[in-house]
């Protein structure tokens, strides 16, 4: 292993690591996976052997203290992120943390403060900021190709009943249902392509059963800076689908499957109903680009696009979204 590669260890190794992160590490130029820890030690040993991961750490402490680890990649359940980050920071390790960053904005702010105090690089795993589709949409909007943005919509649907991550329906472990799990990606995607912030949110959401502890489907009506009205829609009970759309005074940009990494995506620019341009882009290197960007940031060669501090803004939006659902009122994003 060359020392040109930044060495990551995954803390809280699970389904997401196997499905998304391992293939990305295999393709990465500047990032290598050197170790893992998971609560189930038998499963961890099997994972390490199967995927040729050099270190299977027996404790979180051992992982964070290891001289063979540069970056701790936290993929544990949401409720554990804060403790995991504090442990890594105490050992002076850089941290890349999965979204949602924490259970609420106060926790996320405490994490960002701890990282700053420890002087470590700290990023959020908002991988879609490294999708070519969002990059292209952001460029077109910035260049004024749809005029002044007025309306925006991001949607993320997936069938959670079939998801292997059982903890996502447990509010002691998960920040919430699809609002927190995938709605946070939608909020972040709109903030990223528009370069604007969320100022208030009104939420409607349904549970499957009154006794359920998290929502199953939701819609968030969002006020954004610069007089943009946005909608985030999320379902944990529908077939997989993503959509990102922005309507401006001169035209509209639509990306069916805009957040999708598994197949090519057509981003369509229309004016007065006519297709002006269709750009076909493939996001299959989104996770690779995210890892390598973080590694280059670790080497002080570039700025990582989704800082832990920026992630606090997404958490403030989630707090307002859940507050609105329970209050039935429009809630300001603090």
UniProtKB/TrEMBL annotation:
This is Glucose-fructose oxidoreductase. GO terms for molecular function: nucleotide binding; oxidoreductase activity. Residues 137-253 form the GFO/IDH/MocA-like oxidoreductase domain. Keywords: Oxidoreductase. It comes from the Bacteria. Transmembrane segments: none annotated. Residues 6-122 form the Gfo/Idh/MocA-like oxidoreductase N-terminal domain. Coiled coil: none annotated. PANTHER family: BCDNA.GH03377.
